[in-house]
Write a structure and sequence with these properties.
single chain; about 325 residues; alpha/beta; D-Maltodextrin-Binding Protein, domain 2; 2 domains; five-stranded mixed sheet; about 20% strand
Length: about 325
């Protein structure tokens, strides 16, 4: 999957000019397109500068480490998986979700060669990364909505990282596997068929969310609003000026495969949104198996402070 790694590098190196304002740190657990692009574009095109913010993005491997940076004050904001966020909050972390980031998971189900449609998976084995993760939940839920029931119509095998899943498909151990939207482009070019757009099958399941500390919410709500407004403006630019985004990526990495970049963006572009609501939090809570009733007084507010998103969406 060297092309995928190459794509990640192409996006990760996008840096913008520095604004002369307050420096804030944004931590994120992955350099992938869906995680890094809005922050990168907000820096590149001056959205943060317009809000008087100088933003320093920091890649920190793993959601729990990102949260630790947030709780210690080393990071002001974090972009993390929604399931990780609600799980940590339920365990007592003094943080809150303040906005959406990636409205649906950027994953697809790719079949082995010879598997051309979902019906071909009956009696077969589907590979996911590991037990209890977001990929397992999303894959099983999406297949269920298409009429395929786990352990009745197919079985799940924990198959490791992307190269390991490719090897398992090529050797016949599994007949389909979950991959990211970026990897989808490469896999299709290699002749593997697309079976299901997982994220678009469960659109109410937000993949990545924006989180900050409860202390930040109390001490500087104006900064929270400014940060979210800049991110939203960057998302609008990504969705309305895709060629500008591609041009920036290509300029920063001259050897990048522009065709791969363009196809990846075409798939991911509609997923960027700060919009978030109670139903989205409920899906996250259910996916995390927290057993929380969000209809109870204050239950939703424990996880999600919606005032910033509401104001931004009303201002449009």
């Amino acid at each position: 999957m060297k092309f995928v790694a190459f794509l990640y590098i192409a996006i990760a190196v996008i840096v913008g000019s520095q604004a002369h304002g307050k420096t804030i740190t944004v931590a994120y657990p992955s350099p992938s397109w869906n995680t890094s692009l809005p922050v990168s574009m907000a820096r590149e095109f001056g959205m943060f500068s317009a809000e008087g913010l100088e933003v320093r993005p920091v890649y920190v491997r793993g959601g729990p480490v990102v949260l630790a940076a947030l709780l210690s004050g080393e990071a002001d904001f974090a972009v993390i998986a929604g399931v990780t966020a609600v799980t940590s909050i339920q365990r007592g972390a003094e943080v809150a979700i303040v906005g959406g980031h990636t409205a649906y998971i950027d994953q697809v189900l790719i079949g082995a060669k010879g598997i051309s449609k979902l019906g071909d998976l009956k009696g077969k084995v589907v590979g996911v990364t590991g037990a209890g993760g977001v990929t397992e939940f999303a894959t099983v839920e999406a297949l269920a909505r298409k009429g395929l029931t786990r352990d009745k119509d197919y079985t799940v095998m924990y198959s490791g990282n992307s190269p390991a899943r490719v090897n398992a498909m090529e050797s016949g151990i599994i007949q389909a596997a979950a991959f990211s939207a970026n990897e989808k482009v490469i896999m299709e070019e290699r002749g593997f068929p697309l079976l299901l757009e997982t994220g678009k099958t469960i659109p109410e399941f937000p993949f990545m969310v924006i989180v900050t500390s409860r202390q930040k919410l109390k001490s500087n709500p104006a900064e929270v609003m400014a940060f979210l407004r800049a991110i939203r403006n960057a998302m609008i630019l990504i969705q309305t000026s895709k060629e500008k985004v591609i041009a920036v990526a290509a300029k920063k990495e001259p050897n990048a495969n522009v065709n791969v970049l363009r196809k990846s963006l075409d798939y991911a572009v509609d997923s960027f949104s700060i919009a978030l609501g109670k139903k989205n939090i409920q899906v996250l809570v259910s996916a995390a198996k927290l057993g929380v009733n969000l209809d109870a007084p204050g239950a939703t507010e424990k996880f999600f402070v919606d005032e910033f998103v509401v104001k931004l969406l009303q201002a449009n």
